[in-house]
Amino acid sequence: MNHSAIKISHLSVTLSGFFNALQDINVALPEGKAIGFIGPSGAGKTTLIRSIVGRVKLTSGSIEIFGLPAGDSKLRHQMSYMTQELSVYPDLTVKENLKYFATMMGHKNVNEIINNILHEVDMSDKANSLVKNLSGGQKQRVSLSVALIGSPKLMVLDEPTIGLDPVLRESLWKLFNKLKAQGTTLLVSSHSMDEAERCDDLILIRSGKLLAHGSPSELKKNNNTKTIEETFLKLVGDVKE
Fold it and tell me: Is 42:29 a contact under the CB 8 Å cutoff?
């Protein structure tokens, strides 16, 4: 039996005083799984993610993470957040970035941590390269490296594979599966429906509303569809806007 890593109750978020970014979201997300937040651009995925990591003021409702309210200082070392934007310093080397963030987080065995993480993301050969001189995919992996510092229980990854080639996407998902096997809970947002098939648990979201929640197989079975994309399109047709 899986415990819930995250419990979201009657969550609504209004941005700029008038835009209903999220509307009455109720869901419990399992621990130790890869959970996909799936929906088109502008669906509300990033707002939901930012709410979970405590960077958005909730209009109503609540979010609990491992039994603590979202944004609680006790969660700081239990979770990490990889944004869509580059979240490292371009004028530092890969190794200097990791050393800076590991030191800021209070870790002692910094060099060992850095070497292990660089090996995990296959970036050891780029350790002394300036981030600004890396390719887009390599920069993504540096951002992911920072999110891996401290072996967090929960990793929140906003579009981590966007713009990556299929080979690199495959290698990152191998890493995600390894982390999951070690007990890490992964939240992965994407607008790619084929990526949804890689997740254990899915939230389908559109226009700030929760369309469905369940495993890929459950969602396809319940909607008599063959793919998550077909499921999503069928559910959209049933939603009253």
Answer: no
Q: Give the angle 59-29-1 at the CA atoms, nearest 5°.
A: 150
Where do the H-state alpha helices sit in the chain? Answer: 45-52, 94-104, 110-120, 136-148, 166-181, 193-196, 216-223, 228-238
CB 58 within 8 A of CB 13: yes
Give tens-digit pLDDT for 203-213. Answer: 999 999 999 99
**pTM score of the predicted model:** 0.88
**DSSP, residue by residue, 94-136:** HHHHHHHHHHHTT-S-HHHHHHHHHHHTT-GGGTTSBGGGS-H
Domains and CATH numbers, the chain: 1-78+171-241 (3.40.50.300), 79-151 (no CATH)
Name 122's Cβ contacts closer than 8 Å, sequence gap at least 6: 141, 171
Distance CA 65, CA 49 (A): 12
